[in-house]
Amino acid sequence: MKFSEDMDPKDWKRLAETCELYLNDKSIKGIIITHGTDTLHYTAAALSFFIQKLNKPIALTYSQRSIDRASTDAALNLICSAKYATSDIAEIALVGHKNTNDEICLAMPATKVRKMHTSKRDAFKIINDTPIAEITPDKINILKTFNARSNNKSKIDIKFSDKVTLIKIHPGQDPAILEYYEQQGYKGIILEVTGLGQVPGKQSSTNWLPKIKKAIQNGITICATPQTIYGQLNPNVYSTGRELQKTGIIFLGGMLSETALIKLGWVLGHKKWNVKEKMLENLF
User: H or E element: which one contains 187?
Assistant: First the structure.
């Protein structure tokens, strides 16, 4: 029992290790993980990278309203999660209400989902992707191709560097924060950049470009994700974006910032990997 805001990489690793045991137990049909909503999408992303050769369904689910309330969403979410966990869809999915009505849930891709409301029953939304399935207590309507249940032996890869962080770019922000993280021994930074791929540049009193270039030259991997949530980065459109490319930053298209943070920690945990190639590799 732990509040989700208190979760950390050690908990993600422990969950992955537990999942590995059950995935390779032939008497187990599938797995349901109940989890607080605040950081559920971080855990979903972590398990997606940690668990290799997935052979059974894993449903991560939640309730926005407690089971003692008439408006609870827990019952339907659990029922639909059980329906998903006994299906042939060997994917890690976040399972929860499709809308505010207590009728239907979605199985959502674990690395393409974000909590978009503080209290609504349908708080989680899919970003730049589509649902795996619609689920009711009676049936599953599969909406896309999926990895099928198999007799493969699942294994885990939980190497992870926790020396990664996420910084949201805003006007007037001092780029010296990069030096702070460098001094603290951080190895990777996700910059949530503005627009199509910009940071304050040469016309700004807080020009980020030299500090980014220096940090990268000093061995820190810096990646860019959009803070607009929907859409893709395209740094070629504006001059600031083109200047930012020259620093060596890695643009991650439309990847969610939370997913990018988890992926970067996982990639940096493997010291022999080519970080840029792996960060740009589409694993799901």
Answer: none
Sheet holding 221-226, edge to edge: 164-168, 188-193, 221-226, 250-251
Can you say whether residue 275 is alpha, beta or left, with left for phi > 0 and alpha for psi between -120 and 50 degrees? Answer: alpha
Residue 202, C-beta contacts closer than 8 angstroms, at least 6 positions apart = 209, 240, 243
| 10-66 confidence digits (pLDDT tens) | 999 999 999 999 999 999 999 999 999 999 999 999 999 999 999 999 999 999 988
Question: Hey, what domains does the chain have and what are their CATH numbers?
Answer: 4-156 (3.40.50.1170), 164-280 (3.40.50.40)
Report d(CA 97, CA 106) in Å as an integer. Answer: 6
Residues sharing a CB contact under 8 Å with residue 38, sequence separation 6 or more, in sequence order: 3, 4, 5, 115
Q: Are 42 and 74 in contact (CB under 8 A)?
A: no
Cβ neighbours of residue 138 under 8 Å, at least 6 residues apart?
none
> Under a CB-based contact definition with an 8 Å cutoff, are residues 47 and 19 in contact?
yes
